[in-house]
Each structure stands twice: as structure tokens, then as C-alpha cells.
Amino acid sequence: MVRGKTQMRRIENPTSRQVTFSKRRNGLLKKAFELSVLCDAEVTLIVFSPRGKLYEFASASAQTTIERYRTYTKDNVGNKTVQQDIEQVKADAEGLAKKLEALEAYKRKLLGEKLEECSIEELHSLEVKLERSLISIRGRKTKLLEEQVAKLREKEMKLRKDNEGLREKCKNQPSMVASAPLTVPAEEENPDRNNNDMDVETELFIGLPGRSRSNGAAADSQAKPYS
Question: CATH class for domain 12-76?
Fold first, then answer.
């Protein structure tokens, strides 16, 4: 009788599952022992049952084999990881360089440069994109201008209100003119007095300096001969 192929899935019956585990565990431990003896290999096998019971086999020492495994994986996996990271960084840099070059070429085309290599379809696509960009730019510009005009109108209305308020204040305040008595200067009241004060008597005197007028007259009378 030929045995059917065992399906690789979990056995639902607990009893059958436990029996299968015991049989295959013993077979696995036997194969590990045979491998270590026949091939002079360092083999360590660790198995935990569904209930958490430990089963192990070690050709030398399980702890020694585990430490050896950790050292090996740490060195090789670390070097492999670093190398993979370097290669990944290089690949990313190359990809970014290509994208940057493509963007620079597209930018030059938008500026109207290097159009000799463009086909009719590419030129039409650039034209459509530029028209859309112009529509967006003009729309944004119009919106900003409308906002500025609205702000200026609000400012104008505020200034008008302030101006009207000042006019109302000026109308409500009465015009008070202080009447002060006119005072006429004393010089204007007595003009004759000023003229009299300004009159000066003048008289011609001939003689040596330092002599008074009376002495001069006496000397002249003495010097005059009798007729």
C-alpha cells in the first residue's frame, strides 16, 4: 500500500499532533547525530515542544556553537549590511542625478532653450503647460490687485469719515474774536512836543578850542580899538 503525500499544514487533532511531533523529533535528532559523526560537523539542534519542553542535541557544546554562530553572523552580516548600504546610497545618488538632469533639461525647454531636439508633440505639450501657467499667474495677479484696491477703498472711506468729523467739529465751535482797546502812543498824541524837543539852537563861534564863549567875547571887546 502506497502512503499518501502528507499535507504541510497544522494538524488539528491534539493527539495526532503530539504523536507526529514525537516521531519526527526523534528522526530529526537521529539525523543530526548522523550528520555530526559521518561528516565531522559541529551540529547543535534545539527544539521546543508545543507545551514548551526543550529538546536539544549538540555534537560539542551548545553554548560554544551558539557563541560561534553569533560571532560569525555579527562579522559577516555587519560587513554585508554596510556594503549593501553603500551600494544603496550610490544607487540613490545616481537616480537623483538623473532626475536632476531631466529637470534641468525640462526647465531649459520651458525657457525656450534647446528646442531643436523636441518633437511636435513635445512642443505642443509645452505650449499647453505654459498657457495653463499663464492663466494661473494672471488669476493670482488679478486677485492680489483686487485685494489692494479693496484696501485702498477702505482707507479712502475712513479718511472721508475723519474729514467729515473734523468739519462737524469746526461748525459746532463758535467763532470768538477778542476785542482789545486800541492804544495810541504818546508820540502821536503830542506831535508838537516832539518837534519842539527836536529843535536845536545853533550858533557860530570862532576862537581857540577850550575857550568859553564868554571869555572869547571879552577878549574881542578888549582887543577892539576905540574909535
Answer: alpha beta
